[in-house]
Amino acid sequence: MWETPYFSYAVRELPKGCQMCVRGEKLVLFTTGACPRDCFYCPLSPWRREDVVYANERPVKRIDDIIEEAKIQEARGAGVTGGDPLARLDRTAEYIRALKEQFGEKFHVHLYTTGALTTKKALEKLYDAGLDEIRFHPDLFNPNSRLFRVEIENIKNAFDFDWDVGGEVPAVPGQGERIKWFAEFLDGLGAKFLNINELEFSETNLRNLLDKGYRPISDESSAIKGSLELGLEILRWGEENTSLSYHLCTSKLKDAVQLRNRLRRMAKNVAKPYMEITEDGTLRFGIAEYEDLDELYTLLVEEAEVPGEWLYVNREKGRIEMPEEVAVELAEAIEGDVRFFIVEEYPTWDRIEVERIPLP
Q1: Whole-number pLDDT of residue 340
Q2: Which of the residues 24, 226, 256, 313 could staple to 173 if both were Cys, CB 3.0 to 4.6 A apart?
Q3: Which pLDDT value is given to residue 255?
Q4: What does the record list as coiled-coil region(s) (predicted)?
């Protein structure tokens, strides 16, 4: 077992999909919130539990939205997720095929599925579309259910095709023996890897996890007590007892590495000249707010003598954007009801604001 440079742990080689993901090179393609299961630890937000499509944070209405988002990110691959993408099989296959046609065969696509819907016919459609890697997440912690038995049988179908097959499950404290059983099952079929995710709280699974006795490791973290330790135990056991590769994907990796690297790739393609790209990949700049933007623009250009090319009127957000240093100078010089701030935003489609500093 070895510690990666990404705050995670591995046995043998990381799956190709993971290698690209940690570098921020994977577009996250959410093809539907529909799913045949209702896992108690599911972290999906309420608005993603519907039949919706997103490319990263961008709502998708047509295939061109996906292509545009991939270009902005300079993505070299995509991770197809849900819900269960096979709940909308034709749509998912169409998107995979479109990405391959646009960016070429080297554009690496991996997909997550429960296994409930992976019939031979469905898998053949995904394979023909160009899928490179498939990751199974069966109802492992409900082994007596009929659905679990169907999933286990369906997983066997994946080995009829020339792609990488593996599993991906959360490290649920108290469920170590079930995860080890799954590892041995995959290893016996000739799978390549098993990914273990550190279990985390979210807005939607919080009550379920608390009711089952799980607790966060601290007030500042969403990670669950005992999950990381179980993941490490599985890796140590797996290294000695199976031939699989393992990757323990930690809560810190997702926030401090994967997201940051993706933001950096996007920021350089969406930043306007007056925006500074921070170390974290956010966009930092100054803004001025006033009830009449046209009046404010005239004031800044004609009276404060700010060059017009330094200013951008953002009517949607009700503000005028500008370089940070310009906002600092204007805040000291202009009195009245004009409000100046330094803001930081994600370079994503939804432009989430992560910081706002009032001036002066």
Answers
A1: 98
A2: 226
A3: 81
A4: none
Alpha-helix runs per DSSP H in the chain = 16-22, 63-73, 89-103, 120-129, 146-155, 176-189, 206-211, 227-241, 251-253, 259-270, 293-298, 324-333
pLDDT at 104: 98
Q: Which domains does the chain have, with CATH numbers?
A: 2-266 (3.20.20.70), 271-359 (no CATH)
pLDDT for the residue numbered 112? 98
- Taking 50 as the pLDDT cut, the residues of the chain under it are none
Non-local (6+) Cβ contacts of 104 within 8 A are none
Radius of gyration of the chain (CA): 24
CA distance 59 to 53: 6
Can you give the length of the chain in residues? 360
> Taking a C-beta distance cutoff of 8 angstroms, is the pair 87, 94 a contact?
no
CA atoms of 200 and 358, how far apart (whole Å): 34
